């Protein structure tokens, strides 16, 4: 169903209240490096975790466009809160690939179950009677301190040829957390390291990583659950950056008063605002394309290019806003410096780099495959 025909789930409407609360708590979250339970509960109550969960489990099966609007709204107050909300939603979409018995267990108590995900294959698993034996250590698992379940990716022996990769779902209490997240920005995302030691994981709590990459979901026929990872591109990571940049714009504009309001300052502010809006349009285009379920190679490549281009525009704009505000904007109590640090940290994510994400696929779409 096209994005303009999909009913709203209410998440975007609820996001404004989450933004206001997150903004009030942002300074404390930045200092303590964790979200408060009140903020985490507000994210859950607004419907982020259930956004992509199937209706048969009580979920909303919402659109990419609505979620993107909601995440942008929350990030205007606190980028770490928006990052947590965004990844909780997208983790629910990833969990839709689990076999039905596994999905029913994950969402047995509520479709608002919060799942954290370690996307990179960092552990190993072997087949045993009753399922898999899993061990490993996964870094940068955002929101793990607030999660009910975790999804991690591990290497498994291939039947023939090279090893394969699978995702595994584990409930709270079956992993340990090392507090390794010490980034200068996005401090309260809780992107710590998860360790699993020789856990027995039932077969219905596992699925082949190729399903996520290709978008061929053998467990759900819902369109939103059958989108390849490339189509989603950097949406989970770049949408919070858009909101953070809008927050930075608000904070910088508040400094352009009295004698500081000069023609040169106004031009700098307007230039930054234009670039932020351009980035936002690129991100919204990606969300609309994902909702349209069109999967030709050119659109997939454009989605990756849009995400990385938006990240670059937003990072540059944040730097311009800090330069405009001057020393005052860098005070520890000023929201501008927090947004600037958050944007700088978030845009370092591997999914938002030309070299690792967008350049090759879009160059091939424009020029055709390179000659050998």
Automatic annotation (TrEMBL):
Q: Which InterPro entries match?
A: Acyl-CoA_DH_C, Acyl-CoA_Oxase/DH_mid-dom_sf, AcylCo_DH-like_C, AcylCoA_DH/ox_N, AcylCoA_DH/ox_N_sf, AcylCoA_DH/oxidase_NM_dom_sf
Q: Which UniProt keywords apply?
A: Hydrolase, Oxidoreductase
Domain Acyl-CoA dehydrogenase C-terminal, by residue range, is: 237-353
What range(s) does the Acyl-CoA dehydrogenase/oxidase N-terminal domain occupy?
17-87
Molecular functions per Gene Ontology = acyl-CoA dehydrogenase activity; flavin adenine dinucleotide binding; hydrolase activity
Pfam families with a match to the protein in the record: Acyl-CoA_dh_2, Acyl-CoA_dh_N
Instruction: Indicate what this protein is called per its UniProt record.
Output: Hydrolase
Q: Which organism is it from?
A: Streptomyces ferrugineus
Give the source lineage, highest ranks first: Bacteria, Bacillati, Actinomycetota, Actinomycetes, Kitasatosporales
């Amino acid at each position: 169903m096209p994005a303009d025909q999909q009913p709203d789930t209410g998440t975007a409407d609820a996001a404004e209240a989450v933004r206001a609360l997150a903004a009030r708590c942002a300074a404390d979250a930045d200092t303590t490096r964790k979200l408060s339970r009140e903020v985490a509960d507000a994210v859950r109550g607004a419907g982020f975790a259930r956004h992509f969960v199937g209706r048969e489990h009580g979920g909303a099966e919402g659109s990419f466009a609505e979620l993107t609007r909601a995440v942008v709204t929350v990030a205007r107050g606190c980028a770490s809160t928006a990052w947590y909300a965004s990844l909780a939603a997208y983790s629910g979409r990833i969990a839709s690939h689990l076999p039905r018995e596994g999905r029913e267990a994950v969402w047995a108590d509520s479709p608002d179950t919060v799942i954290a995900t370690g996307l990179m294959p960092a552990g190993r698993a072997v087949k045993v009677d009753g399922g898999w034996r899993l061990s490993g250590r996964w870094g940068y698992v955002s929101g793990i301190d607030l999660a009910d379940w975790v999804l991690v990716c591990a290497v498994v022996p291939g039947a023939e040829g090279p090893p394969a990769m699978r995702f595994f779902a584990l409930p709270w209490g079956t992993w340990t957390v090392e507090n390794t997240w010490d980034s200068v920005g996005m401090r309260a995302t809780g992107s710590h390291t998860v360790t699993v030691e020789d856990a027995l994981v039932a077969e219905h709590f596992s699925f082949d990583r190729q399903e996520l990459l290709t978008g061929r979901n053998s467990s759900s026929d819902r369109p939103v659950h059958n989108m390849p990872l490339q189509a989603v591109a950097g949406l989970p990571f770049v949408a919070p950056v858009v909101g953070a940049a809008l927050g930075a714009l608000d904070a910088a504009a508040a400094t352009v008063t009295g004698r500081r309001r000069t023609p040169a300052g106004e031009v700098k502010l307007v230039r930054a605002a234009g670039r932020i809006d351009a980035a936002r349009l690129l991100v919204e285009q990606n969300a609309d394309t994902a909702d349209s379920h069109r999967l030709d190679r050119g659109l997939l490549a454009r989605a990756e290019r849009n995400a990385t281009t938006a990240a670059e525009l937003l990072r540059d704009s944040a730097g311009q806003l800090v330069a405009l505000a001057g020393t005052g904007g860098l005070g520890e109590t000023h929201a501008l410096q927090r947004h600037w640090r958050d944007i700088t940290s978030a845009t370092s994510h591997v999914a938002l780099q030309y070299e690792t994400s967008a350049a090759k696929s879009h160059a091939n779409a424009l020029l055709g495959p390179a000659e050998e």
